[in-house]
Design goal:
Radius of gyration: 28 Å
Number of helices: 24
CATH architecture of the largest domain: Alpha-Beta Complex
Number of domains: 4
Largest sheet: 10 strands, mixed
Helix content: 25-40%
Distance between the termini: 61 Å
Amino acid sequence: MTEKNIAKTIKIEGIVQGVGFRPFIFTLASRYNLKGEVSNTSSGVLIHIEGAEYNIEKFCKDIPLKSPPLAHITNISDDIGSIKNFSSFSITKSSEQNLKSTLISPDISICQKCLSELFDPENRRYQYPFINCTNCGPRYTIIDNIPYDRPNTSMKHFKMCDKCRIEYDEPTDRRFHAQPNACDKCGPAVILYDIDRNVVPADDYIKETARLLREGNIIAIKGLGGFHLAVDGENKEAVLRLRKRKNREEKPFALMSYDIKTINKYAHTDKKEEELLESSQKPIVLLKKKQNKFIVKEVAPENKYIGVMLPYTPLHYILLQYGFTGLVMTSGNLSEEPIAIDNEEAFERLSNIADYFLMHNRGIYLRSDDSVARITAGTTRIIRRSRGYVPVPVFLERKVPQILACGGELKNTVCLTKDNNAFLSQHIGDMENVAAYDFFRMTIEHMKQILHIEPEIIAHDLHPDYMSTRYAIEQHNKKIIPVQHHHAHIASCMAENNFAGNAIGLSFDGTGYGTDGNIWGGEVLITAYDNFKRAAHLEYLPMPGSTSAIKEPWRMALSYLYDTFKEDIWNLDLPVIRKVGKENARIILEMISKNINSPLTSSLGRLFDGVAAILGIRMNVNFEGQAAMALEMLADDKAVLKSKTKIYDFSWTEDEVRRISVRPIIKGVVSDMGKGADATYISTKFHLTLIRLFSEICKTIRAENELNNVVLSGGVFQNSILLKGIIGELEKNNFKIFTHKNVPANDGGLSLGQAVVAAAIAER
């Protein structure tokens, strides 16, 4: 007996366009002898399928299980349809209007099939540095408009040859509708220039680049989302020259190595770290260093960790095949400026840094730095979310209005919302100059265009002097909603975890403008999306010199010491006083006592800075968080996690908003120094004290408010010892804990929090 035929209409939402989804459905339908059609719609993909009920059932089960690697399905729904007696299965063309709301795939590293072809001498794309297919290659950085079609990308300038066109038009080919599809006969090409813009004579430009790197030259290399500045990581003189020219004294550089076997020459990896390194996003991963004779210490000075990535473009693979242990691959810019993306721009901005330029003629429409991640407490934590992850949205629990959230001043990102999607931009960076502000504005306009979003609400940080705040206030005919910095941090983590309701929020960072006009940063909040209550905070202390105290941690050290010991400070024999000198110290203490340019702060980040300076570890910093990082590097993480040391005393007031005194901690640190305790012991004890302190605060607030959910956010939680320790201590006390994974805990996640807070306030 022949099984009865039925028809179904299947709707699939998510990232299902430009990723080979329709060819996948075409092949799947053929496998099960089904008829019908598949088309793109404004929300995803629509399938009409006809055939035996048993086969349709198997077809539906296979869709989420076997979908293409770049697809991200958020919802599948199906209904019984009417039989239209299709004679075959086909892919139908969609109108441009129907594609105005589709989700866009991020740039993805070269896939294994393309990599095999790249190194196959019999393949027509052998050693072609722009090989790609539907499963890999550029997306976000080459899109100028929607729909994602070749005429709307930077590939519009390259007409496909006959062989490439046949692949592009064949539904069963993995290059079907791969918009960057090309070969060396019809596609982009590389070329090598010197700083005078002369073409370097060579039969093989990439091979010549490898030779120049071996000689110690600095090469500006055009990649997916912008230029890298590259040097050989085994060449000390080259690394130091790059530091000097780039004006980057001590901040660690990232390395790129050919494979994990090579990485293991100089860094430790575990299974999860290897999986992250090899993921399709290919982020920079922070790994523990090994003692080694290969990579020079100047790549990441005074750091236990080193940032490493695997190649993610064909060009990188070709270059690294020439036997480098690791190439420094740092952003193509002067420090604090956006990376260069255009060839002419690179010549103008990088000629004082680079010796040569390896360029290509495929345009980059939107700059995108490398993403940075690490494994902490057994989970991937994104530190900088950019290439490979953007513009995949954060999927929200409920629909929200179209909102633009402008982020903060440091590590800026912006966020645009539509329906239940929150689109967090790529890393824009520190908004400290006109170039960064221009990039910020360009990113907003580009995202609005390709995501088809016109915001009705604009959210911004409370700080009146941030460039992002000024931009928001200047927008007319929009509802403007200010959002407190630390409220946004906690809301960001709540949104990422699809958590609704009230929670205890631990929001720890360096700087955030408070509702009382002071600088917050060591905050315990009771938080919902539409409001928050300050439950406790570190006691306010002066920041002598204001922002100068961030770059010169010795100022904060003196502030903490004076608060604790008053005039007895002069009886202390401490490295910070010896290094600063008593005369300079007296000037700072006078600023504090007379309240001259000394705003108040409750920042935990500043406490880390102050303790680092009291110990004599860092008097000045060359990049944000350097002193706190140095203090973390000294701690014995195993001793902290096993609680194998005593803790310092701590206390807080029993006011409506508890004030946590740091005096007992500072007193304990100085006492241990007087007894000859080393910095490792003190740092370990300091970390464990903070873990116990905030766990006890959470227990007290739980008892009063019947809240068992704790949300952790803010840049201080990039400290893996503190994060692991607080998670462990809270778990022991049966709290439910929410942490960041796919969104940065630092200010890179701030705009997401601003967006969801603004949505809740607007609804209220």
